[in-house]
Amino acid sequence: MKKMMMMTAVSMMMFGHVEGAMREDNPGKLAAYLKYSADVGVAGRGVPLFAQRQVEVRDGLVYKSTYETYQKSGCRIWIAVSGEELGGPRARTGKSWLTVVYQTNSNLKRIKCQAFLCSEIELLAIPKSVEEIEMDCFCRCKNLQYISFEAGSNLQKLEEGALSYSGLRSALLPKSLRCLGHRNFKFCTYLTEFQCERGIALARLPYELWYGSGLEYAEIPATVAEIHAACFCHCLALKTVCFRSQTTLKMIGQEAFHCTALKSIQIPGSVEFVGDRSFADCRNLREVGLEEGSALREINMDAFIRSALDSFDIPGRVETLRLGCFAQCSRLETCTFRAGSVLPLIPLRCFTESALTEIEIPNSVHTIERRSFAGCRSLRLVKFGQGSALTDHKRRGIREVHF
Fold it and tell me: Cα dihedral angle (148, 19, 81, 7), rounded to 10 degrees?
């Protein structure tokens, strides 16, 4: 709540007090004010922002300003730029900016590739007119703590790496957003919370979206159908992930939650696919909940390897377990197959070095591959139901078998 109030206050400061910010004697850290009007040219793609002749607006007076003027005046300068694009990769002349503000009636629609790369801005307010923020736009802005989007934002696309390696503390994505590029918040180590406005219609969370970030809590929108590879990988502080009601999630991709601090997670009933190493090395993960009637069909290689699971229920619709999916789960004492299981095979190293004490093999299983239960030193009882499809099985290391 404090964070949200702070962001609201920042937004009010940026959008509600523009005129005061334009005064040269205004106290605080405001270093640059970008005002978008309708009467001046705009820097094109590949041209540094201040390399062209612009217009300086100060206390209501308009002056022509050049790159040299900017150099002389340092970072206390206000630039008025028109048009629908702010362009030029690596606007290095703006490296010493502290605050960037756009006026509320801005016509700006696109902020181009690397426009603020490696700048020192601390606060950022995006006007509602902006529809696209291009690749690496605010990448490596180490001092950028807060970003706010004006109410009624029309932002459609936040491209690859736009805010990666920044000092961002929190983010509330506008509901207008439809496309979120990969690596957008990668290594934002101070970013602890991610939220989306109600009504957002994101279809996927792309790969490495929050890789190595400081996230502690994440709420997944109901429209997200896919969480791609390494999306939350190495988020070492991530303890809680919530899925909104009526979620349509189908896929949890490779290494999606690899090496996080999750203690428990409720996988929605709509999920059909859990990718390789999705929850590998989650050393605090004790519980994975799966709804009755779960649509889960495939648990892939090393999906839960070296996790802290105590028990696991495998839904009846699961058709495929891949090698090592529960290997080295040193706390895993119980694994049950739900009624109506259609699983045909228990794969290589499936439960290797787990803490299983007993297990009941479903009748549908016709093959148990080698080393499936190797190193399970506590395993004493394996049960096979009447009518089991198994015609051959290895009993070495198993003290008792019930048919």
Answer: -10
Query: Can you tell me which residue has the tokens 């290997």?
Result: 327
Could you tell me which of 145, 99, 95, 101 has the C-alpha nearest to residue 116? 95
Residues spanned by the domain of 81:
1-161
Residue 228 lies in a domain: no
pTM of the complete model: 0.78
Q: Which of 383, 335, 379 is nearest to 353 (CA)?
A: 379
In 129-209, where does DSSP find H-type helix? none
- Number of structural domains (the chain) is 2
Three-state secondary structure call for residue 217: strand
Rg (CA), the chain: 27
| 270 in any annotated domain | no
Q: What angle do CA 377, 379, 380 make, to 5 degrees?
A: 120
pLDDT (tens digit per residue) in 271-297: 999 999 999 999 999 999 999 899 999
State the DSSP string of 279-305: TTT-TT--EEEE-TT----EE-TTTTT
Q: Which residue, 161, 177, 212, sits at the end of a domain?
A: 161
According to DSSP, residue 92 is labeled G
77 vs 65: CA distance, rounded Å: 10
> Tokens 């496309």 identify what position?
179
Cα–Cα distance measured from residue 258 to residue 21, given in angstroms and rounded to the nearest whole number:
45
Q: Is residue 386 part of a domain?
A: yes
Task: For residue 148, give the amino acid letter.
Answer: S
294 falls within a domain: no
Using DSSP, state whether 208 is helix, strand or coil: coil
pLDDT of residue 350: 97
In the structure encoding, which two tokens stand for residue 96, read together? 């010493």
Is pLDDT of 330 > 90? Answer: yes
Tell me the one-letter amino acid at 150. Answer: E
Query: How many other C-beta atoms are found inside a 10 Å radius of the C-beta of residue 293?
Result: 10
Instruction: Let me know: does 84 contact 112? Beta carbons within 8 Å.
Output: no
Domain boundary pick from 140, 161, 182: 161
- Calculate the dihedral angle through the C-alpha atoms of 227, 291, 195, 95, rounding to the nearest 10 degrees: -30
Q: What is the pLDDT of residue 89?
A: 45
